[in-house]
Amino acid sequence: MGSTHSTKKNILYPHPIVETEYGLIEGMNVLIPKDSQKRIAKVFLGLPFAAPPLGNLRFEQQVIIIQKFAGC
């Protein structure tokens, strides 16, 4: 947060798609800013790993989510 650098222009196509035991996940190829070697990172955002800590789950151990992804 607070970054003034826009990553939108650093997103490259095609997007990587990875098959896992829980389904397909689509990510982004992102050109790493200010990298003299112009390397690319494969980025996957929004992957659920635990139930949100709401209600009775607040201040308790995480409840790991094991379910199929909605897919690409």
Automatic annotation (TrEMBL):
Residues 15-61 form the Carboxylesterase type B domain. It comes from the Eukaryota. SUPFAM superfamilies: alpha/beta-Hydrolases (SSF53474). InterPro entries: AB_hydrolase_fold, CarbesteraseB. This is Carboxylesterase type B domain-containing protein.
